[in-house]
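cron nightly-structures :: item 1 of 1
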Amino acid sequence: MKKTIIAAACLAGVLAFASCDSGTGEQQATEASGTPTAAEVDSTLTEDEQELLAFAARNNMLQIELGKIAAQQASTDELKQYGQQLVDWHTTNQQELQELAQEYGVTLPQQMEEEQLEYMEEIRDAKPEEFDAEYWESVTKAQREAIDEYDDNLKDLDETDASAFSLWARNAQKELQAQMEQAKAFELELKTNEGGISNSL
């Protein structure tokens, strides 16, 4: 009788251990398979997304330089202040972009391309009396092209995508749009004032 009780107790112990071990094993398998899978979803970028990061880095460099030029050469306080805003925002955005690129293992360019350098040369070479008008025209053109680049690369992005890249891209796109609208408003104001002066003459 004692042997039967002991055998039953041992069997119960073995079953209990097996049950615990099975649960632990399933938990470990879930953890092992779940965590890397979640990380993998947000650790890879498409070729278009990588190109957008590279473009954004070059555009930040361009806007920072355009802002510096405006702060130094503009004849109106509005343009000088706007130029400083460009410097401040794009400097911050470039830092955020660098952190994002490191997270995804992407190397960002350190220099602008020829087309962007041409924007700077055009503005630098503008005559003092024509600087403000040429600046607003050039900067809004550059911003429009930047927004188009974002639109092309983000058109297929899922609205429910909450990855680090998606959040950064949407915020950057909205800020660029706001900057362009502000620049266009200043440009229109300048043209209106010039028209008023011309008509009064």
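cron nightly-structures :: done
The chain has two domains: 1-41, 45-200.
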